[in-house]
């Protein structure tokens, strides 16, 4: 499984207030503060772990979806290699 397999189809809204935001590039569409990214990843991982433990049936659905995505990705790669 890759991170893309797990994130496929995932939609999330996360709100973070940053006192001094730093953006990447001219368009200013991506936040460049690495400490914010680290914090959000840590909190999301902790909360998802708690949620999976409290909701094992739903966690199984998420895992099955990720496995299906991985299988589809591998099948697509094999199909491309045969052409």
Automatic annotation (TrEMBL):
DNA topoisomerase type IIA subunit B domain span: 1-81
Official protein name in the record: DNA topoisomerase (ATP-hydrolyzing)
Reaction(s) catalysed by this chain's protein: ATP-dependent breakage, passage and rejoining of double-stranded DNA
Enzyme Commission number, as recorded: 5.6.2.2
UniProt entry tagged with the keyword Isomerase: yes
InterPro entries: Ribosomal_Su5_D2-typ_SF, Ribsml_uS5_D2-typ_fold_subgr, Topo_IIA_B, Topo_IIA_bsu_dom2
Species: Mycobacterium intracellulare
UniProt keywords, alphabetically: ATP-binding, DNA-binding, Isomerase, Nucleotide-binding, Topoisomerase
